[in-house]
Amino acid sequence: MGRWEYSNRRTVEQCKSISTKFFKDKGYLCSNEERSCHGSIFWSHNGRSIGFGVSTFKGNEYINLKYTITDKSTNQKTEIDYNAKLTWTPCNFGGRRWWFICPLVVNGQICSRRVGVLYLASGKYFGCRHCYNLTYESCKESHKFDRLFRELGITEKQAKELFK
Fold first, then answer.
1. What SS3 string covers 57-118?
2. Is the pTM of this model over 0.70?
3. Strand pairing of 77-90 and 60-70?
């Protein structure tokens, strides 16, 4: 059933994200083609946008991210411009699977984790969910009473109605 939250960690659903799947689907990451291209991502719910450049030249694979962060307390704007490395692994039936290399530094160590999605959580830079200690919304839901409801013959829908 999963109604009762027991964690106060931020979720990936609450954060802005970029994924290698998005860039692949839009044609920025091609299977065997070396090239450089540019574009932008626009989030409509708050009018923010991110400019990006992608390079898939062998030995120089990266995505360059450019955006502005506004400090809510001082209203000061900071221009952010940095690269996140890209890497790829071969697929079983041909082609490539692209990955980001997490660019964040946590406790003095560069993360360098290979991930498919980078999130903009509480910091200024995009990083993996492990660096930002993010969880998924579904993981925050408690299922401790699900078995009891099943044994009582109550469906998930009925249980939600009972405990509104």
1. ECCEEEEEEEEEEECCCCCCEEEEEEEEEEEEEECCCCCEEEEEECCCEECCEECCCEECEE
2. yes
3. antiparallel
Calpha distance 59→112 (Å, rounded): 16
CA distance 9 to 121: 11
3-state secondary structure of 20: helix
Amino acid of residue 161 = E
Give pLDDT tens digits for 96-148: 899 999 999 988 999 999 999 998 887 788 989 888 887 777 766 666 677 77
28-37, long-range: CB < 8 A, 24+ apart: 28/54, 29/54, 29/56, 29/86, 29/96, 29/98, 30/56, 31/94, 31/95, 31/96, 32/95, 32/96, 34/58
